[in-house]
Amino acid sequence: MKLRFFLTEIHRFFSSNIHLAMSTKVKKSSIGSSAAPSTSEKERLSDEESSSIYESDLDENFNDYYDYDDPKPVKIDRCDSSDEEDLRNTVGNVPISWYDDYDHIGYTADGRKLAKSAGKTSEIDSFLAKMDDPNYWRTIKDKQTGKNVVLPDEVVGLLGNIQSAKYPKIGYNPYQPFLDIFSHETMLHPIVGEMDHKRSFTVSKTEAKKIAKIVKAIRKGLMKPRKSEQESQKNDNYDLWNDDKDVEKSKSQIARFKMHVPAPKMKLPGHAESYNPPEEYLFTEEEQEKWLKDDAEDRKLDFLPRKFNCLRKVPQYANFAKDRFARCVDLYLAPRKRKMRLNVDAEDLLPKLPEPKNLRPFPTVLSLNFKGHNGRQCSCLTFEPCNGQYFASSGDDDCVKLWEIQSGRCYKTIKFQDKNSNIRSLAFCPDTKKSLLAVAIGTNLYLVNAGVGDRLIVSDTEVVIKKLSSLIIDVEEDKTTSWKLENNMIRVSHTKTISQVVWHPAGDYFATVCPEAGNKSVLVHQLSKMKSQSIFAKQKGVVQKVVFHPTKPYFFVANERNIRIYNLMKQQLVKKLQSNCKNISSIAIHPRGDNIIASSFDARLDWFDLDLSTKPYKSLNKYHKSAINSVCFHQRYPLFASCSSDGTALVSHGMVYSDLMQNPLIVPLKILQTGSTKSKLEFLHCVFHPHQPWLLAACSDGSIKLFT
Fold first, then answer.
1. Strand, coil or helix: what is 204?
2. Where are the WD repeats (predicted)?
3. Is 687 inside any structural domain?
4. Are strands 482-486 and 489-493 parallel, antiparallel or unpaired?
5. Does residue 405 share a domain with residue 305?
6. pLDDT score for 486
7. pLDDT value at residue 242
8. Residues contacting residue 554 through CB under 8 Å, at least 6 positions apart
């Protein structure tokens, strides 16, 4: 204190002397000059006086004081603000960072160094201060003064508002109630009635020029758009061990890095690999002997499970190096590929089919049940081609019955003398001018006048049979067939059992199938000349079914697995259809001749588009659970049907378009059943009505079902 008082007195003494000297100098200059001082001199004098006073009238702490020796003391405020009142050093308003590399923080008024305050306190002292001082969290250190300052509540609230992105002022409400004096009352006329300026609703030419300039710069590449945050974050991940960071990678290297697939992890050990597994995981003596005899590839486990009382008794694993080597080989040689999985709903991939109610008419209800075959199987059905009023049926009772479809009456019954054989097939002649029925019984084929329909047609059929009987004498019998006339019926004898008879659409040719006849299993007969011929010199496989093309000279032959198409005019193979069926049971051709369906005994139904491919266009395999015995097309409506041994018949919509660029539309419509689920009846044959959307099905109990 004494030293400080002493320095203060010295400073006051020197400052008073400097002030007196300056005042004396001013008086002498004023007395010596005769004229009054000019304005510039007064300003210069005032500046000098002020500067001298500024330099002298300060104490050691740069505080103002009153000079009592001066007759006119003046109080001068030298501080810019009140914030500097707490300063205890004489550094001045300079950055403290200037003294970071020095051991002092400034100088005193007499030129002595001001030592720095104690640096950072120890962690123990700071921890004790933190625990003892309740205001520790709001205490900061002022670098200018070197003291700890406790922030008041106003400053703490101000800082909290700034951190939470609020208004700095505490309690400030930015949404004060506002009274719109200008428009709070509805007026009749506007206060301002000026017209809008033209530039308010027209395009600015200046902005258009700026936009054109920017577009031109973007096209030339001079201006590039700002990168999004996602693109900027792509470069955040980099290879730590890559020395060539500035070298651009090729596309293949980038793709290889992106498509990297990590190796699959090893299978986790199970209970059998435990050193103390449960008893059920240990092998018996028989299982152990079997494990030793089996090859390494056939073993379920690569080791024999063993049991130990404690872990220290477990011996060293002998195959450790071998397993590690196998794992390394798998990682090195096992190929891995990334597969892009599409999260697509399965229903979206299926085509949108029309609803069945929009595809009417089609048979849905059982209308009539024909009974007359004495409880035996009814295996064959055929419609009279003229108007479909009559149909014929045959079964195991060796007779053919003719029915009137509307009344359900059995119009006629034709019995045959071949009692040792069953009727395997029958078909009406498609020629509407003849009422001729072909019946296959055993090894004989009979051409019978059905006697149904118009009387003129019946009489004409009798005349045709009499004319043909006169030609039988001139026909030379060969080894394959023989033609004879018996009881107003023409009999064509074969060497083997006939399984099918089918007519050509013209009505002059018909074909028979004898599966056991070898190369002569398929015979084509001409009715007008009463001749038979074998069209194949060699036949591959067992022939199941045959059918003629409705408009072209094509002949379809179905084996057990495929369907061959022959051109009868050129006598060559045209196409071979590859079916998914193991044993084809029946085939049917569309009236236009470009599509064909085939069924099999393994419950498969395939649709072939001859213009599209030799493989099935579509397969219907989930609707029948047992063998499919027969398939058929409707001659007028876009319908086809299939009947199965499980007692169901499937009616489907099959629309064939004239546009070759559009694929056929196939829609399953209705599953028809025999009626009772306990009866376990089987459908053996089915056929459509020639004109009406009716389906006729033959059952295993000898009955005939009519669905309309």
1. coil
2. 387-413
3. yes
4. antiparallel
5. no
6. 81
7. 67
8. 548, 565, 566, 567, 568, 574, 593
Number of domains in the chain: 2
Return the ∠ at Cα 224 (arms to 222 and 225), rounded to 5°.
155
Q: Are residues 306 and 425 in the same domain?
A: no
The sign of the CA dihedral 45, 48, 54, 57 is negative
pLDDT at 2: 40
- Shared-domain flag, residues 523 and 671: yes
| Rounded average pLDDT per 10-residue block, the chain, 708 residues | 45 44 40 40 41 40 42 44 52 77 80 74 84 88 79 90 88 83 74 81 90 92 77 65 70 82 85 91 90 87 89 89 90 80 79 85 89 79 88 85 87 78 87 88 88 85 81 58 83 88 91 87 88 84 91 92 90 89 90 92 91 89 89 93 91 89 89 71 89 90 88
Do 302 and 442 sit in the same domain of this protein?
no
Question: What CATH number does residue 681 fall under?
Answer: 2.130.10.10
Count of CA atoms in the C-beta half-sphere (13 A) of 453: 25
**Tokens, residue 342:** 């599409």
Q: Which two tokens stand for residue 382?
A: 């055929």
- On whether residue 161 sits in a domain, the answer given is no
Specify if 539 maps to a domain: yes
For residues 287 and 393, state if they share a domain.
no
Is 286 a domain residue? yes
Which stretches of 171-227 are DSSP H helices? 205-220
Domain range enclosing 304 = 275-312
The side-by-side arrangement of strands in the sheet containing 704-707 is: 366-370, 704-707, 695-699, 683-688
* The predicted structure's pLDDT at residue 90: 62
Token pair 């009382």 is at which residue? 309
Q: Is 66 exposed, middle or buried (0-12, 13-18, 19+ CB in 10 A)?
A: exposed
Whose tokens are 């000079």? That residue is 67
What order do you get walking across the sheet with 554-558 strand by strand? 545-548, 554-558, 562-567, 572-578
Residue 503 and residue 595 share a domain: yes
